[in-house]
Protein: Transcriptional regulator, LysR family
Amino acid sequence: MLPELKIAQLRHFVWVAELKGFHAAAEKAHRTQPAISLSIKDLENKLGETLFEKRNAKSSNAELTPFGRHFLPQAKELIAHHDRIAEDMTLMAEHKTGHLRLASVPSIASRMLPSILSRFVANAPDLHISFYDDNASAVLKMVENQQVDFGIASLWKAEEHGDKSFTPIWEDHVGVVCPCDHPLAGETSLHWETLRDHRLISNGTSRLLEGTEAEPLLLDSQFYISNMISLVAMLEAGLGVTTLPRFAFPEESNTLTFIPLTTPEVVRRIGIVRLSNKSLPPAADALVQFILEQSKEQKK
Structure:
């Protein structure tokens, strides 16, 4: 049976060897000299060999045996390996190292996460983050397949996702997006039936209208465009109008306008989506808590 070597005993051995004496090692360890002697004796018993020559009464120096000289670099290597692992685990527990994976819907990815992540990693330069930007369905699928630690999305039809938990954080209202020179552009709010007189373009967020009185607009849509860049290009070209949550509206656009849809009032709730039966890695859990804290601060 292999001996179980204690790190403290290895440290005591190295200190005695390097400092050339039990008294100096005891001072460094903040222990008594007899305690250090007992520690070394126990280590020798485990190894089955003596580590230090019998001390000469005329000298207080501790001299290594041939076995002790051979064991010294091995002991140092064991201590260094232990300390590296202990440091890595401590940093990981403090979310300062490791690999964090998350996915988010584009609107939150572009609007909220840049400032949140920049503050979060400020004190964690060794933390690696893999970030995926996709629609809500894709984000939920990545969470389900454990490709990411957690996702940021809306949980559509929660009853179909019993394996996931949802913590709401943000909410935004659905409105109509059209070119600034469109006949609807001058309106301050819109009733859904008004849209039936115009060419409609549906997109990935149009499903938010399901179950509302505006649901007929989904059947009225002549086009479906899934990609946001393509959708914006088609809107700017005057192909039609679409519905989008406020966060998804491209604020940098000088050619498009957002008009609130007030009848019905449709609200999209976005939050943290994770598997219910899985614990988050320390870094991911720390980020979730950080996001929750930041959202509370913004609401004050």
Observations:
- The domain at 171-268 is CATH 3.40.190.10 (D-Maltodextrin-Binding Protein; domain 2).
